[in-house]
Amino acid sequence: MHLHTIGIDLGKTVFHLVGLNFRGEVEVRRKFSRSQLLRFTANLRVELIGMEACGGAHFLGRLLQEQGHEVRLMPAQYVKPYVKTNKNDYIDAEAIAEAVGRPTMRFVPIKTDEQLDMQSLHRVRERWVMRRTAVINQIRSLLLERGIPLQKGRKNLGHALPGLLEDATTKLSGSLRMLLMQLKVELDQLAQRIDEADALIGKTAKTNDACRRLVDIPGVGPIIATALIAAIGNGDAFRKGREFAAWIGVVPREYSTGGKQKLLGISKRGNAYLRKLFIQGARAVLQHSKNLSSSLGSWLSQLTLRAHPNVVAVALANKLARIAWAVLAKGQQYHPSICTNTAIA
Q1: Which residues contact 193 (CB under 8 A, 6 or more apart)?
Q2: How far is the C-alpha of 233 from the C-alpha of 58, rounded, in Å?
């Protein structure tokens, strides 16, 4: 059997497959388990296999590539317009098979095991950071109910909490003291886990050549460097830095009609985690912008005079993202003196 395109609708245990011929007609409509699917595709001649980029897609994509197939992953929102009628698994698979053959479709590179490992580490670390923030806020709220306000910030809480627990003059009941001690233990455990994750990320950044080039960029540290590589690999999915900046959502939204251009706030599309990291890195650079002697520093000083600090931070995040893509995709070192000319192209 020779098919033109195949669309596979992924599930946890059941996979629905639809195959189209060169005229776009449905030739195959089958349902498989994982092992049955791999046995079926092992003896199949097909030009292109398409799947949505979701959980398990990268693993299955690599297995199909090992069988000699060309596999492409697509964002689910780009497949939805090709669904012709009511939703079911076969209709979704047919839409995937039709969408994967479109010449203007945007695809997601299949991640390696190393990228998935680093992505998993970042996701677990982010959950620990969010949990730590939640515990800190809960401790502050419990103390505020007893008339003890604390300043914002993890360090302020860390300095004040041990003294409050040991101070017998504070009007805290024994049960509340015990509860606060348990929350402090949880907070210390989360801090230890985050420190261990940071140490592992730092070790990986030191041993990876691309990470070593990225950390030379102002505002880019081991966390941003490893998260960037885990997300886009070598950056081949983007033709230029502007496309990468648009992908992480630090470019203006546009609502233009009738020949009149209207630009709004940033789009906030794509990878929200990378967008947050780059904006945080940009804010760190702004705090020490006076120490920048490169053209980036002069650009920042001029922009700061005429724009709001939040606008400056997002604009700098855009520039840093484009520089990072250029350093990653072109395999070059970061050169501060020419960062606003060639490294952003």
Answers
A1: 128
A2: 13
CATH 2.120.10.30 fits 2-99, yes or no: no
pTM over 0.70: yes
The model's confidence at residue 339, banded by pLDDT at 50, 70 and 90, is very low
Q: 329-336: long-range contacts (C-beta < 8 A, 24 or more apart)?
A: 329/234, 329/235, 329/236, 329/238, 331/213, 332/213, 333/213, 333/216, 334/213, 334/214, 334/216, 334/217, 336/218, 336/292, 336/293, 336/294, 336/295, 336/296
Q: pLDDT, tens digit, for every residue of 192-226?
A: 999 999 999 999 999 999 999 999 999 999 999 99
C-beta separation of 1 from 26 below 8 A: no
- Whether the Cβ atoms of residue 37 and residue 15 lie closer than 8 Å to each other: yes
CA dist., res. 345 & res. 338, Å (int): 11
Q: Where are the alpha helices (DSSP H) in 109-150?
A: 113-145
Over residues 72-129, the pLDDT tens digits come to 999 999 999 999 888 899 999 999 999 999 998 989 999 999 999 999 999 999 999 9
**Sequence ranges of the domains in the chain:** 2-99, 113-207, 209-338
Long-range contacts of 203-206 (CB under 8 A, 24+ apart): 204/118
259 by DSSP, 3-state: which?
Answer: coil
Q: What is the pLDDT of residues 19-65, one digit of tens each?
A: 999 988 999 999 999 999 999 999 889 999 999 999 899 999 999 99
Question: What is the residue whose two structure tokens read 């799947």?
Answer: 51
Tokens of 82: 């090709």
Q: How far is CA 286 from CA 30, 249, 280, 289, 312, in A?
A: 56, 20, 10, 5, 9
DSSP labels, 141-155: HHHHHTT----SSHH
Q: Environment class of residue 91 by beta-carbon count within 10 Å: exposed (0-12), middle (13-18) or buried (19+)? A: middle
Strands (E), the chain: 2-9, 15-20, 26-32, 45-52, 71-74, 252-254, 263-266
Between residues 338 and 134, the one the model is more confident about: 134
